[in-house]
Design a protein that fits this description.
This protein has 342 residues and is an alpha+beta fold. The protein has two domains: 144 residues, Orthogonal Bundle (DNA polymerase, domain 1), CATH 1.10.150; 129 residues, Dna Ligase, domain 1, CATH 3.30.1490.100. It has ten helices and eight strands. This is DNA polymerase V.
Length: 342
């Protein structure tokens, strides 16, 4: 994403490998959008060795559609600018793309659209937005306008703080004992608390859940969760772990082979709006904030889990299998490739 900020100051990070760029006022820097797209592809390939595709559109939905075309149509060479495609060719192209390729149209919604005879992108674009709103709601109405070139989704350059944070993993092997489950839940809560502090927020309620493998018919099945209100809103890892372990002990049942556990932080508010209590509460106040700040700084500098609140064993049998993780070529000396000359 840092590379892309060199092409435009207006960047919305949509996911870990996808983002939108706003090109307002940048049209004179490049001969055509296609030239800009090829420059983006070449720089990212040169600096990271990652292949990417680029799509240009006057709305976010059309840009996503153009990116889809760039991926699926080799003749575009990884860059598609819908505005540069001749009208007749564009109409034929949209008539050949299934409606499920449109951003926001999933499998179930695609089936409902097909039932009304809307099976292609062109058919969806030509459907009156008012009819889409009547049958499918305001979200589909906006999608219809976006396909017609009317922008309804603004570029979000500042990420909105999340209202709910979930940290959950499937175990690398089945877990039976409460101590191992406690280690896993404490680790997940530490990760969730770090995310909470990163967006300068506090939460009022946590939820912990555990479940067995529903696909193992030979094992007894069990799943349960518990919601634990906090005595006061906090982002302190100590308080959050204590609440999570309390809930875990209440729902844990001996004799089951557990496959997954996780925690959920909800009722999230901004830490800046927290009302100061008359008496300093546990997991709140200036001392707690300073302690958590030091904890995050040490873990960021020296590596994850350098400092942890809940003691865990070095051998975490419950850890998720990661046999196919890509090597850390740029951050770990042991993973730097070695070239041999003969």
């Amino acid at each position: 994403m840092t590379i892309l900020r060199g092409f435009s100051p207006h960047v919305e990070v949509y996911s870990i490998d996808e983002c939108f760029l706003g090109l307002q006022g940048l049209d004179k820097l490049w001969l055509t959008p296609t030239n800009m797209g090829q420059s983006i592809r070449q720089r990212i390939r040169q600096w990271t060795s990652l292949p990417v595709c680029v799509g240009f559109g006057i709305t976010k939905t059309l840009a996503k559609l153009a990116n889809h075309i760039a991926k699926k149509q080799p003749e575009f060479n990884g860059v598609c600018d819908l505005a540069s495609i001749p009208s007749a060719q564009l109409e034929a192209l949209l008539s050949a793309i299934e409606v499920g390729a449109v951003w926001g149209v999933g499998r179930h919604l695609s089936q409902h659209l097909n039932a009304f005879g809307i099976s292609t992108v062109k058919a969806l674009r030509d459907t009156p937005p008012s009819w889409l709103r009547t049958k499918f709601g305001v979200v589909m109405e906006r999608l219809g306008y976006e396909l017609r070139g009317v922008s309804c989704l603004a570029l979000e350059e500042v990420s909105v703080p999340r209202k709910q944070i979930i940290s959950s993993r499937s175990f690398g092997q089945l877990v039976y004992s409460l101590p191992e489950l406690s280690e896993a839940v404490a680790s997940y809560m530490s990760s969730a608390a770090e995310k909470l502090r990163r967006q300068n927020s506090i939460c009022n309620v946590i939820q912990v859940f555990i479940q067995t493998n529903s696909f193992r018919e030979q094992d007894k099945r069990y799943s349960n969760s518990m919601t634990v209100p906090l005595p006061n809103a906090s982002s302190d890892t100590r308080l959050l772990i204590r609440a999570a372990l309390f809930g875990l002990k209440c729902i844990y049942r001996q004799g089951y082979a557990y496959k997954k556990a996780g925690v959920i932080l909800s009722c999230i508010d901004s830490a800046a709006k927290q009302q100061e209590p008359l008496f300093e509460l546990y997991g709140a106040g200036g001392r707690s904030a300073k302690l958590m700040c030091v904890l995050d700084q040490i873990n960021q500098r020296y590596g994850r889990d350098t400092l942890s609140v809940f003691s865990t064993s070095k051998r975490k049998s419950w850890s998720m299998h990661r046999g196919k993780v890509s090597p850390c070529y740029t951050t770990n000396w042991n993973d730097v490739p070695i070239a041999y000359a003969y």
